[in-house]
Amino acid sequence: MRKVVVGLSGGVDSSVAAYLLKKQGYEVIGLFMKNWHDDTVTVSNDCPWLEDSNDAMIVADKLNIPFQTIDLSKEYNEKIIKYMFNEYEQGRTPNPDILCNREIKFDVFLKIAKSIGADLVATGHYCKKETEIINDKKIHKLVNAKDVNKDQSYFLCQLSQEQLSEVLFPLGDLTKKEVRIIANELDLITANKKDSQGLCFIGKVKLPDFLKQQLKPKSGKIIEINNELNKYNIYNSKSENLQSLSSGVKYDESDGKFIGNHQGAYYYTKGQRKGLGIGGYEKPLFVIDTDVENNIVFVGEGDDHPGLLRKVLFVASFDEHWLRSDLSLAIGEQLKIKARIRYRQPLQNAILIKTIEGIYVEFDEYQSAITEGQFVAWYVNNELLGSGVIS
Length: 391
Description:
By secondary structure, the protein is an alpha/beta fold. It folds into 3 domains: 3-211, Rossmann fold; 220-308, no CATH class; 310-389, Elongation Factor Tu (Ef-tu), domain 3 (Beta Barrel), CATH 2.40.30.10. It is 25% helix and 28% strand. The chain contains 9 helices and 18 strands. The strands form 3 sheets. Strands 5, 6, 12, 13, 14, 15, 16, 17 and 18 form a 9-stranded antiparallel β-sheet that branches. α1 (12-23) links the parallel β1 and β2 (27-34). The termini are far apart.
């Protein structure tokens, strides 16, 4: 029997993944990753990892598989937490879950699994891996899950061929409803447990409270930008090139009017609606940009404000990642794709345009709140080909 280490998270998805693999004849071992117990950062009054690890242990006992908890908090702090603070401090919005998959689950965790004799690792992600021989080379494809609403391929957009070669995704052909039915039939403690929310391994957290542990509050201005700002007329002209279109409008204080104060521009992100503490408007106010250097938050009224909308984004060459390197573009080449800039966003029609500096993604339709630091992932025929950090 081939030995598989399953990352048991204490949720229903990884529980059923472990069961399915055992049913298929694998020798299954359950490992719970303890990645957070830093009391210097206030996350919540409860301790989600303690409950999760206990549930994972109960599931392992029910399935009669070996179980162990491993402490990866040092690696998580070095690779994820420091990255988060650094990104926010520079006015970008990171995606720690994507980085956690690349750096922790399918790197550190994978190496530990291999060190105890595992042939493969598995998780409860909703996605599919397909393997083909192409030009005499084994190629692993990351494909959308059967359950379109739960597809999590976006979170795995930074994986490599080497990482994919050693992982299994048992839930790829199941819906969430089917997974819960299986868990209930097995009488697993996780069968009706709610899906986890918030940061990977940390849980639900009020982001400003989290960031205040290292990014201290400092008062700054909130400036409202009128949706008829003259800069938008220039920006929307057909003569604009991809570079300026992807950069968007650059605001300064004189472009709008002062309407209030905030406690730190790095606590806010584009598209944010809550947390501004300003009322009296017909439509909700949205953050359309931040200036961390001058500590200014720019806002606009309504989700159709032109400051929220762009058709083009840019990924610098050093942030460009191809899971399918055999399909990567040469300079000057273009490719019709479907892309998303956030989890659960329906795939959008777009074109990849490769230049010497990097890749432009030009969408057919305007996209709301394209945010620096987040990831764009691109697909062809439901296969995820690559991704990159929006710059």
